[in-house]
Specification:
168 residues; alpha/beta; 15% strand; globular; binds 5-O-phosphono-beta-D-ribofuranose; isomerase; lyase activity; purine biosynthesis; lyase
């Protein structure tokens, strides 16, 4: 299912500023694979590949992307600059940074001025996975089968929590 998901026309784009972001961003890809959502994943650096970044954003909607998950660390411009050039929803993932542990990434991504939104998630792995789940929820609005899988995913988490016990 995973390979099929990747081979079909992508509905979700996963981009990141560096291959060093992959350790975190692979959590988004893993979730998209689990749900069988067609995706594409690649490195696009805002400050090292600005022309490619704009081309990606400008072509995203016409290529059929319904959401873009963008992860970056440090002065994390990638999600905001993508959002500046497309109306496809941009889901920003702050990647942990070397010196400020990703608080710089979080603030860079979350503090978008009014008018150009970036939906911003938690720093790190949880943020990457939840960004994918949000992209899945966006797609599920018009895909009943995907919606059913998302409900099932939620129900499993409820079962796990209900089965939890504490030490005596
Ligand atoms: C950002 O700078 C990337 O998103 C990455 O989180 C950070 C460090 O990049 P590398 O120096 O590891 O390529 O652009």
């Amino acid at each position: 299912m995973a390979e099929q998901a990747k081979q079909a026309a992508p509905l979700v784009g996963v981009v990141m500023g560096s291959s060093s972001d992959w350790e975190v961003m692979q959590n988004a890809v893993a979730m998209l694979k689990e749900f069988g959502v067609p995706y594409e994943a690649q490195v696009i650096s805002a400050h090292r590949m600005p022309d490619q970044m704009f081309a990606y954003a400008e072509s995203a909607r016409s290529r059929g992307l319904r959401a873009i998950i963008a992860g970056a660390g440090g002065a994390a411009h990638l999600p905001g600059m993508l959002a500046a050039k497309t109306i496809v929803p941009v889901l920003g993932v702050p990647v942990p940074s070397k010196y400020l542990r990703g608080e710089d990434s979080l603030l860079s991504i979350v503090q978008m001025p009014k008018g150009i939104p970036v939906a911003t998630f938690a720093i790190g792995e949880a943020g990457a996975a939840n960004a994918a789940l949000t992209a899945i929820a966006i797609l599920a609005a018009t895909d009943d089968a995907l919606a059913a899988r998302l409900q099932e995913f939620r129900a499993k988490q409820t079962q796990v929590a209900q089965a939890m016990s504490l030490p005596a």
